[in-house]
Structure formats: structure tokens, C-alpha cells
Amino acid sequence: MTTENLHLEGAPFLKEQNRGLYEPAGPKATYEAAVRSTENNREITDAIPYWQDWRNAAEQIKTFAVANLDKLLVQFEQNITARGATVLWAETAEEANRLVLDIARRHNVKTVVKGKSMVSEEMELNHAFQSAGIRAMETDLGEYIVQLAGQRPTHIVTPALHLSAEDVGKLFEEKLGEPFSAEHEHLTNIARRHLREEYLKADMGMSGCNFAVADTGTLAVVENEGNVGLSTSTPPVHVALVGIEKMLPSIDYLPVFLNLLARVGTGQKLTSYTHLIHGATPGKELYVILLDNGRTKILQDPAARKALTCIRCGMCLNVCPVYRRVGGWAYGWVYPGPIGSIITPHLVGLKQAGTLPFASSLCGACSEVCPVKVDISHQLVHLRHRAVNEPSPANSLIDRITWNVWAWAMCGPVRYSLAAWAMRVGMRIIGLVPRSLHVDKLRAWTRGRELPPLSGPAFRTRWMRRRTDRKVAELRKDVCGSCCAACGLAKQKKNESNRP
Amino acid sequence: MIQPANTPAPRQDDPPYRPGEPVALFIPCYIDQFYPHVADATVKLLQRYDVPVVYPEAQTCCGQPAFNSGYWKESKRVIRHFCNVFEKYRWIVSPSGSCTAMCRVFFGHVAPDERIVSIGRRVFELTEFLVDVLGVTDTGATYPHKVTMHNGCHTRRELGVVEQPLTLLKNIRELTYCELPDMADCCGFGGTFSVKMAGTSLAMGETKVENIVKSGAEVVVSPDASCLMHIGGIMQRTPAAQHIQIKHIAELL
Q: Which of A257, A294, A312, B194 would be A347's cystine partner, CB 3.0–4.6 Å?
């Protein structure tokens, strides 16, 4: 583990960071934890007979919200401003960082306590705080661990999913000077003891937001550790970071989302705490920063729009066979897993993230569990289509030529047969070459798998032969008896006629 | 309990199949070349129910490899060829779930054209055609072996075909059905994925093979031969699994 801050500035990934995408390089703890979460969540969702109705309702509400984002955002701003909050709009992550730092300067902030926020990760806010000489402490246990280790989160709900209890025990021993322990309860108590002091010292508290309700101007934040409650209410200033897609039209719709999110996110019926923040506490300040950072670009693309309905539950990560094996860092940016593969290319551009949509076997396990029914696996193919046609690392002339030749060969039976013949010859030759000499693309397959066997002539050949045989037999039937007395059919006919 | 994100694209099974109506066989390219006996078995199976089977000889491929790789223009050319070949047939049956999904679900993504979409919806996966269209649940076959089944992800999640192959399999006489742990997990093939992300694909396949060994089966069947191609290729390299055979479900029925 390094002490270096690995938060990346911008997204210069797709070099070192996503090497894991091509090889299963994730820590083993990731696989086990993801499988365990999947099983827990399945158990709790299977127990709800009307689960599919909830999903359908959530899908419709979110689709409506995303389609009416312009109106809902303004409504939300008006309502929460009326109760003393200050709403600020940021188009980019840099702008949002500037706004946060301005607020910090205005209130003379030295230390900040932070509740968990994916938008903060997206902004690389900790990095910005560090450069401005402000001490920022993550208070969510997982985020705290990851921050202490100088790493980045590998999961959007459980940031330290990749670390086992032993890893955390060793980390606390090294960084906090605590005696080693691998017991969850003991570890939690250590973190709690260290964090309590921070809340009291902090000049500013930060939080994310799970749902922003337009008709009441409410921020809904869910959590399990009490840290969000402390972060938002103890310090004199509270800054909430809200992605603009978080809108819900009405507070009446909130319960279905609280029910869904807790169940798929953490396998609970409801999270331990649900905070509804309607405005600023008298004597304290509340700032709400609404961040776009590329979300309106997703809105413009009808094939991708549904990705904005994501409620960041992390279930698609848990079920994804690729995520389970490569781990969160392989995806190179803030959002890993299938949802990351569809939103990252929009948010940072295909030029940088063009290979992400290819990090999937298209098995559709993600779409199957998504609580708001985002068609993730279909969007992946749509993005692949864009990635090979627009400037991106997936755009390759050799591939284009190959697929053009392939398409030519597949557009006629004679060409097809010719290509099949060439393939058969090729496979025979490959069979004679030792595996160690195979070219990269071939070795990719042959290093752990045998090539499929060539078992005799193709079906098409067999069918045609049979058809020819049938025709010959029919012809013979017509002329038999006159042409060749020796043939079997003539004998048979003779026998038949001899019968009484 | 679990429903895919997208309601599966509707198949065209109305008006119902009338006995004697010809059925066009769509034999995907890899079955044609590597597993011709699967196609033979499909023909025999359908003929057993007096279905007049036609094999349009100009057929090639459904366009899926290029589609999944992002080359939609190239894929569209192949789809057009497919539609020209199969246009005159009302019923099209294929012994491959993933190619059927390509036709029924994804033709509309590449070519949102009424004619192409309607032809795509006439394509049926073999077990789906037997159970849902012909009403067959027991083919009267006998197969005295221990068998487990892996269903392809496209068959399961894009077509929603889950129970049909299982019903047919479990009704085979003298067959011992072995439960496959984590049956719904992907085998890691994913077409070009298996080459583009070979290491991850292989790791997924190895988990699948471990589970097959755990199930205690002697034979793995699937309604999708492309998964079997991948699983079989790995099993040949896995000493603990070398005795296990791969078979398409049509070969057993």
C-alpha cells in the first residue's frame, strides 16, 4: 500500500490503470465480497413478491424525472432556497471545486468532515482541498479506510470492498498505531474513536445526496453509520454535492426508492439512517452545489439517456463477472463496473474511455438486477458502435478492414463457402504449429482453450449432398427397369410385382 | 423473480403454427462448420413432429459478431442478406439462442426498419419452438447418463427462454439431472470478448468448468453451442473435466 494520493487528476487512464481489464487482476477479496453481496441482496429482494412492480414504478418515475430535469431543478432550487439554503450551479468538476473552495475561504475553514459522496470523487475534491491546504477527513468507514491507505475506492457503495478485515487491521496498526485486530466490531470502534474528535473540530461538513426532491425542496441522504448525520449537523457549514440527475418530482415517490436502494445496495430493508434535509438550520449555513459535469451530454443521446436514472446502488458491480475478477481500479475512473462502462465514456469522452464498453461479455446480469431497469448491456453495444466510429482507442483501421472482408464473405453462399474453406485450411495449419509460436490474437484463445474440432463436412455440404442423392434416387425411380436391371431399385420393383 | 431490464422483444407467434406449414432452418455459421451433427439432430427432431423442414441454402450468418464488436454498418449488410434469404418463410427455427436473440432483439437496434424487425421476430430458438409453438414437453427420448445444463446468457436474458430447455431435458427417460451451481453465471465466451479480454474470459470459463465438475455430471448440455465451444475448449485442458462431454440439447432429445 502506498501513501501517495492515487486520486487521478482528470482521467489520464487507459494506460496503466486499466491494465487489469485485460487480465483478472483484482484482489481476491473483491470476488468474495461481491459474491456475498449478490447472495444477500438476492435473498432480500426475492422475499418481496411485488419487487418487479417496485422496479417498474421506479423506472417510470426516474424516466419522467430525467425527461423533466430542467423544470424539476428550478423547482427544487426555489423550494430549498426559500428555507435558507444557497443553491449553486456548476457545469464542470473544476467549477464545483472552485465553488467549494470559495465557500471554505469565506467561512475560514481549516478542516472538513465528509460524508460519502461519489460526486466528490468525480470532482477529485480531496485533491483540491489538499492543494488549498485544507484538511479533509472522510468519515464513511469504507472511505476512511481507503483514504488512510492512500488508495481510491473500488466500489461505489462499499469503497473498501477490495480489503479484507486483516488488511484493515494491518492498516490501522501501521497508520493509527492501534494494536492489530481482524474483528469487524473492534475495527469499527477504532475508526469511531478517531473520527469523533474530527466532527467536533471541523469547520465544515460535506455530504452527497441520494435523492433531491423537487416539490418539497428536500435532500434525502441515506447511511448506516451515523457519520452523515454528524457531518451535516455538527459543523457550522454544510455543503451538499448533488449530481443534477438526482431529482425526484415529488416526496410521495421517495419511499419506493428508499425501499429499493437499501435492498439492492446493502441488502437491508431500510438503511439505519435516512436524513431528509429541507433547508438550513437556524444559525448555520447550507450550500447545495448542483453539478452537471457531462450529465447533460448523456441527456442529449436518446440511446444513453436511461443511464441518468441510475441510483448508484452498486448491484450491477456485484453481479458482474468481469468486475468481480478485475476489481474497481481496472475501470480507471470513479465509476467502475457495468454502470461505469456506460457513463464514464460519456462523462470523460470516448477518446479516453473508448475501450470501457468492451469490458463485458454482454451477459446482461447487470440489466437483470438493476432496480431502475437501466438497459446497461444494450447501451454497451451502442457505445461500442460509437467507439469504433469516433476518435477512440477502439477505432482501428485493421479491425474495420477485417469486418468489411467478413461482411463481404457473409453476403453470399459461394463467398461463405470460400471463407469456410480458407478457415478450415487455416485451422489445419494452426494445428501443426506449436502453441508457443501462435500470434497474440490466437494465443489469447489457445493458451487456455482448445480450438473447436472440425468434425467432417459442414452441414450445408451434407444437406446439399443429401438433396442430390434424393434427386438421383427420384430420377432412377422414374427410369428404372429400363436402364439398369442390376440396380437395387429395379430388383425391388420386380420383387414387388412378383408378390401375390 | 428476476426480470431483465428490457422486456424481451415480442416474437411473432400469432397466428399459431398450422400443421404442415414449412419451417426454415437457420443454422448459424459456427454450427454449420464445427457442429454439423447438431444441425442434423435438429432436422431429425423437427421431422419427428411432421414439420416440413426447409434449409434455405443461400443463408450465412445473422451478423452478430460484427454487431457486438460495434461494426454496425458491416453487420447491417449481413442482416440484409439474412432477410433476403428468409423473407418468404413465416417460421424460422435455429438451434442457437444467441443467434436467435440477435435476430429478434438486436435487428431493430441496427436497422430500425419494419421489414427487418418483422423478419427477426419470426426466428425461434429450437426448444422454445418445440415447447411454446408445437406444445411438446416430452420428446420420448432415453438417455441413461448424468447430465447438467448451462443456459446461454442471451437465451436466458434476451429471449427469456429458461424453463423450456429444462422441461425437455428433465423429461428424458433414465436421465439423471445434476444441478449446476451458479447456473445463471456467464461462461465467459461473449464472442470477441473471449479474445479481447482473454484472461478474464478464461477465468470466467474456469469457474464455470469447476462448477460443472462439482455438479457430478458426465455430460453438459446447452441450447447454445457457442457457450459449449468455449466450455468444451477449457474442459479439454482441465484434467478434472476431460471425461465430461459437451452436447447440444438437440442431440439428446
A: A294
